[in-house]
Amino acid sequence: MTDLRFGVVGLGARSSLARHAHRPGEGAEIVAVCDPVEQQRQATLETYPDATAYGDHRELLDLKLDGVFLTTPDDLHEDPAIDFLRAGVAVFVEKPLAITTAGCDRVLQAAYESGTRLYVGHNMRHMPVIQTMRELIQSGAIGEVKAIWCRHFVGHGGDFYFKDWHADRSRTTSLLLQKGAHDIDVMHWLAGGYTTHATALGGLVLYGGIEDRQDRTGQRFSEFVSNDNWPPLEQKGLAPVMDVEDLSMANFQLDNGVFLSYQQCHFTPDYWRNYTVIGTHGRLENFGDTSGSVVKVWNSGRSGYRLDADQVVEVASEDEGHGGADPKLVDEFVRFVRDGGATLTSPIAARAAVAAGFAATTSLRSNGTPIDIPALDPALVSYFDGGQNR
After folding, report:
1. Is 61 helix (H, G, I), strand (E, B) or coil?
2. Distance CA 89, CA 28 (A)
3. Which residues contact 14 (CB under 8 A, 6 or more apart)?
4. 189 domain-assigned
5. The last residue of a domain, from among 262, 285, 318
6. Is 141 left (phi over 0), alpha (psi -120 to 50) or beta?
7. How many Å is the Cα radius of gyration of the chain?
8. Do 244 and 167 contact (CB within 8 A), yes or no?
9. Residue 311 in 3-state DSSP?
């Protein structure tokens, strides 16, 4: 089997995904890496010593690559993705697909017109806890889904999202979109529909009062993250530009009549997601979202408070990358580049997640005004849902 030739553009924390595709002699190899920061390039070449390093993604367009991992900051997804798609290079775009609904539509249109394969890195669809909940729902354990609630406790928020580009709305739109795109995609997947209507409230209620700021241009993620940074108001060296919300609460109505509620807080002591799915014959809920977590199902009848459940499912997990999700995600992309076919992730679903997050952010910043989501061109829906085949 001839090795597929891959590049990696954007050498921050999520670029580590690409190592799962680096199997020289076994089907795939990282042959080019790209980042404007020299320090990032040199550090990455320690992992891929035979690769060539570049400072601008356009230098990779003529390398005859089979595919590229685009793990740049969010505002640098849209235009580079379009450049590679038009050059005939299959693209893995780390979520979110773009930071606006219109940006997503531009990327989808470029993939459609070029016929080049597009894949979006919504790795949570491969997470064991999410797959466990989906299997229970599809088995009929709680009947027909009517509502999903998600509480996202982002305990590391001050370190992960308020010390670099994530805190700048011009680069993310919002954390309701940037961070929430994962959860919105999961809720869409579990509910079997996409958002048509959104409302939200929220604000920068805690970190906005911290005046200690620092420009971290060129720093690596590991240089400013520590579990010792507690309590939240004791954080130091926050981003010079910080205009995204640290508390968001959104409600969504789906095209199939299901309702979603999403809460995101970036200054909790713990860091995990809790999903509650309510159906016509019961409900289920996850406790934990990594190794050792369980999903509980209540469906035998009415009761008062019950700590126990009618069914408790232990979630299988692996230690490698989000409970084993990351290597599965990359394996699926590599297979998709080589052979095509169906994938667990979906560019249409990725657009739907961004559109919901963008609409909710628009609502939040206009005092909760209800926002409708523009429909996507049916030709694009048909093309991507059909496996990107002409």
Report:
1. coil
2. 15
3. 71, 94
4. yes
5. 318
6. alpha
7. 21
8. yes
9. strand
Q: Do residues 130 and 186 touch, judged by C-beta distance below 8 A?
A: yes
Structural domain containing residue 284? 125-318
Residue at 196 is within a domain: yes
Q: Side chain identity at 175, as an amino acid letter?
A: L
pLDDT along the chain (390 residues), means of 10: 95 94 96 95 96 98 98 98 98 98 98 98 96 98 98 95 97 98 98 98 97 90 90 96 98 98 97 97 96 95 95 84 85 97 96 98 98 97 93
Neighbours of 237 (CB within 10 A): 17
Q: How far is CA 201 from CA 2, 229, 262, 286, 368, in A?
A: 52, 27, 11, 25, 6
Q: Which helix (H) or strand (E) holds 91?
A: strand 90-94
Q: Quote the CA–CA distance of 165 and 76 in Å, as a whole number.
A: 11
Q: Supply the CATH number for residue 31's domain.
A: 3.40.50.720
DSSP codes of every residue in 197-257: EEEEEEE--SGGG---B---TT--GGGS--TT--SGGG--SB-SS--S-SEEEEEEEETTS
Residue whose entry in the numeric block shows the structure tokens 């924390």: 13
Q: Can you read off the two tokens belonging to residue 305?
A: 């408070």
The DSSP annotation for 317-351 comes to --SSHHHHHHHHHHHHHHHHHHH----SS-HHHHH
Q: Find all residues with CB under 8 Å of 92, minimum gap 6, and list them.
A: 67, 68, 69, 70, 119, 120, 121, 330, 333
pTM of the model: 0.96
CA–CA distance, 41 with 143 (Å, rounded to integer)? 51
